[in-house]
Amino acid sequence: xNQPQDPGLKQTLKQSLKTILTMAAENPRTVCVFDLDSTLxxxxxxxxxxxxxxxxxxxxxxxxxxxxxxxxxxxxxxxRAGYKFDExxxxxxxxxxxxxxxxxTNTYLHYDIPYRGAVPYVQRLHETGCEIHYLTGRDxxxxxxxxxxxxxxxxxxxxxxxxxLKPHRSMDDHVFKIDWVVDRFPISQYPPETSPVYFFxxxxxxxxxxxxxxxxxxxxxxxxxxxxxxxxxxxxxxxxNFYIEEDK
Length: 248
Ligand SMILES: [Mg+2]
Hints:
Elements: H1 13-26, E1 31-34, E2 41-42, H2 44-57, H3 75-80, H4 89-103, E3 113-114, H5 118-127, E4 131-139, H6 140-154, E5 163-166, H7 173-184, E6 197-201, H8 204-213, E7 218-222, E8 237-239
Parallel strand pairs: 1-4, 1-6, 4-5, 6-7, 7-8
Antiparallel strand pairs: 2-3
Residues 35, 37-39, 202-203 line the site of magnesium ion.
């Protein structure tokens, strides 16, 4: 499955997601590791709420700016709405600071909405006996409590030791995730022949780092949004959400 995508190998969303479910059902030692932001959760409602609160306080016309799930942060939505950064740097700095102060907090995580099919998909994997992990660049101090609350609120399966957040906000996400895979995940207990490992992730920086260090891990890229820093340069399967038709 972990092959470069070409027309002959390309699998549809439904086929690839269902294949993983089948694999997990047949192999009780399957492991699935999920990123949260822009992988299981659409975070654009979080940014939309923050922008709305800023508009109420400082600039009412910003209420009309719509944040799309394909946007990375605020800038792309503002540019699309015609706001030029070089014409009003102070507004953008104030807004950016306002956003940072809220986006990375327990309270605002509650505005996130799982992507289509995400909850039943992870539940079904869990029901097969698959070992589920949530590995996120959110940090413990600012978002630990809210992350657990939101996973429970939406019905994602939780067990002790399944949630892994950054110990400190200053750590790079990809460094944290590699550190987890190499040092904290007992990888020797999961030989690829008997224990397939699937990573679900949206960010190419993380995907490239993981794919390089563990080419035997199967990576599923959520084609939602990302930081625009890198293009994916390792084999992945791309999906846009977790919807499988038969879940209707
Ligand atoms: Mg992410």
